[in-house]
Amino acid sequence: MRLEIQTKNFSYPVRIGVLEPITHASKVLVVSDSIVAPLHLDTLLSKLQASKIFTHEMPSGEEHKTWEGIESILESAFEANLSRKDLMLALGGGVVSDMVGFASAIYKRGIAFEIVPTTLLAQVDASVGGKTGINNAYGKNLIGAFHPPRAVHIDPQFLKTLPQREFKAGIAEMIKKAVCFNKDYFEWLEKHPLEKHLSEGIYKSVAIKAEVVAKDEREEGLRMGLNYGHTFAHAIEKVGRYSTHLHGEAVAIGIQMANALACYLGLLDNPTQERIKALLKTYGLNLPYKITDFEGFYKDLQMDKKNNQCICFILPKGLGAFVAREDIDKSTLKEALHAWL
Ligand SMILES: NC(=O)c1ccc[n+]([C@@H]2O[C@H](COP(=O)([O-])OP(=O)(O)OC[C@H]3O[C@@H](n4cnc5c(N)ncnc54)[C@H](O)[C@@H]3O)[C@@H](O)[C@H]2O)c1
Ligand SMILES: [Zn+2]
């Protein structure tokens, strides 16, 4: 299966299926992490042909998505003396692909990179769309660049070694897209357990993102729907110092918070809210959460990069549509979120 990501400014292929040979005329720097490399680097190298191949291994984990990590990748790129015609190749989850994307965006003012995503979250979301970046003390993904990959190679076989918790967290991003953009996909997900229909589920999810990114590359309208659940999720991740919740788990909680607010405002009815909850529950994503310090939580919501002064909430309007609302005051939000207080 193959999809083309096509926007005004760029176009690149996303291949889904058994990893095909990757050929590059000049040098390639493969970047992976300390968990993925021992599991999958050999498989990748056996499929890679280049004039010279270099490898860089970074420590695994979101806490390493930092400037130091970028400097270390750049150091390897300089050591290998990569030129503008060479390639960086990310083998790993969203942390690796976001970092390699950013490092390749700034190395010698930009060189090409490709992605072989190895988590479900990276296959259905992080590897598609051209956003790259790192975290800092002020929050997640606050430093970065739009830098599209040259190609994405999705092989569901890599997911066989992925821990169940990580696998389920990735499903939150699939449910997110279904609710905001595509009712048919939501109903398909209700009927098709992903354990049995994985490749098709991934394909459909990437196809939705491709369509959204094609229509709105720079997040000026439609693409904002991809942030459904994310304003809350980023605050949840920050409160937990990026260690209590996986990104997808925080998104699943954020989806439910957004739904509660949408219900409170009359945008979503109760039965639909219950349907979304039931689908999340199928994959163990109905996670409990408590907001212990609402004022602090509210400040973190304001800090999210998409928000200037007011907080922009992406709220579902039934299934398959959404609205962006910036007019929600603090007390309304507090009442809507009473179940978590
Ligand atoms: N750029 C975007 O558009 C975009 C979209 C969504 C998320 N993201 C980013 O993606 C990141 C989350 O990505 P993630 O969930 O893939 O996290 P991750 O990259 O940290 O991977 C999760 C864990 O799984 C391990 N792992 C990866 N592949 C494995 C495999 N096949 N087998 C066993 N273990 C494996 C990793 O070493 C890590 O410990 C966040 O930083 C988020 O901000 C970016
Ligand atoms: Zn996300």
TrEMBL record:
Signal peptide: none
Record-linked InterPro entries: Dehydroquinate_synthase, DHQ_synth_AroB, DHQ_synth_fam, DHQS/DOIS_N, DHQS_C
Domain 3-dehydroquinate synthase C-terminal: 170-307
EC number(s) per entry: 4.2.3.4
Chief localisation class: cytoplasm
Compartments where located: Cytoplasm
Catalytic reactions on record: 7-phospho-2-dehydro-3-deoxy-D-arabino-heptonate = 3-dehydroquinate + phosphate
Enzyme class at the top of the EC tree: lyase
Cofactor note text: Binds 1 divalent metal cation per subunit. Can use either Co(2+) or Zn(2+).
Chain residues that bind Zn(2+): E173, H230, H247
SUPFAM superfamilies: Dehydroquinate synthase-like
Pathway linked to the protein: Metabolic intermediate biosynthesis; chorismate biosynthesis; chorismate from D-erythrose 4-phosphate and phosphoenolpyruvate: step 2/7
Domain 3-dehydroquinate synthase N-terminal, chain residue ranges per copy: 57-168
Cofactor: NAD(+); Co(2+); Zn(2+)
Family: Belongs to the sugar phosphate cyclases superfamily. Dehydroquinate synthase family.
Function: Catalyzes the conversion of 3-deoxy-D-arabino-heptulosonate 7-phosphate (DAHP) to dehydroquinate (DHQ).
Listed name of the protein: 3-dehydroquinate synthase
Source organism of the structure: Helicobacter gastrofelis
